Amino acid sequence: MTVLTPPVPLATPRRARLGLTLFILALLLAPWVAGAAGGNYWVRVVDFALLYLMLALGLNIVVGMTGLLDMGFIAFYAVGAYLAALLSSSHLTQQFPLLLQWFPDGLHLSMLWLIPLAALLAAACGILLGAPTLRLRGDYLAIVTLGFGEIVRILMRNLDRPVNLTNGPKGISGIDPVSLFGLKFSGMHEWFGVRFSGLYLYYYLFAALLLAILFISLRLQNSRIGRAWTAIREDEDAARAMGINTRNFKLLAFAIGATFGGVAGALFAAFQGFVSPESFTLQESIAVLAMVVLGGMGHIPGVILGALLLAALPELLRSSMGPLQQALFGQVLIDPEIIRQLFYGLALILVMLYRPAGLWPARHAGRTAA
């Protein structure tokens, strides 16, 4: 006889509100804690952690919620970054005299325009990738998306001839920093007697957009669209038999996930001030996928945990391995980068062995037999 247990509640409203409050509080205090612990270097690390969080939440829609193994997600990051680089630097006006006549001071589009444009272009690329792959699943889909990511990177690397659009492997420099409502994010600032760098302003801009992405992700997960994605992930044939238009929902997943990647890419370009094809390699795609898998596919709090761990842990190992060897042996015996990669890989192996569903997997309804 089979006895079905009642579904386990995902979270009570009170617990959910408490968790959200603590998350927002930690988000507000993080750069000051990081700055006090390690100066501007660690503030920069937490800035990049927020960018990776955006990427992980975008990939979670495709991989975690819909079950589509995307190995080329970093391509959408590249599309957003290069669009921002072209529209907020002098590169295009230097290459095209006609544009120089129209824009003698160069193209310096505001971030208020760059973010929606990057989102739209990345969404179009997501649909372009998704349309020919609708019939593919599993390993075959992974190979095709991997190829797409490499095509975009190689295209950016070679679009410097016959017309120099991307400046090839040299990349595009001189990208304008973010400037909103007359406030420039570069340089040093002083408010109410407190002096701080523009890294803090970038952090709060990233945090605001991350909260918007998080809100959209949570609303989607609990909506009709999210339930359709879950049905496709669990059994696409059964979902189709139940009347779900799997084609449209899969394209929607690719488009929304790519949108988040494009927004993160535009922010990365402005923050870094430089983009090149080497920032969008296959290794980056694998790192973002590892964040989703490590935290718990389809579970948004788990994805956040996985992204924070994999964004911060390598930098922590990089900065601590050298001094630790000096303290123990009086000299650096092994390159800290090698030790970092060793511990990073070992941690992933241990997690996959002992927590195969992720560090913080989603809770599902149980089924017991009697």
Briefly say what this structure is.
The protein is mainly alpha-helical. The chain contains 14 helices and eight strands.
Care to describe what's here?
- This protein is mainly alpha-helical and 370 residues long.
- 67% of the residues lie in helices and 6% in strands.
- It has 14 helices and 8 strands.
- The chain has helices at 13-38, 40-65, 74-87, 91-95, 97-102, 111-130, 138-158, 198-221, 224-234, 236-241, 246-272, 282-295, 300-329, 336-354; strands at 2-4, 172-173, 179-180, 183-184, 188-191, 194-197, 274-275, 367-369.
- Strands 1-8 form a two-stranded antiparallel ribbon. A two-stranded antiparallel sheet has the order 2-7.
- A hairpin with a 2-residue loop joins strand 3 (179-180) and strand 4 (183-184).
- Helix 1 runs antiparallel to helix 2 (40-65) and helix 2 packs parallel to helix 8.
- The longest helix is centred in the last third of the chain and has 30 residues, at 300-329.
- It is globular, with a radius of gyration of 22 Å.
- It starts with a strand and ends with a strand.
- 36% of the residues are buried.
- Mean pLDDT is 88; it is low at 1-10 and 365-370.
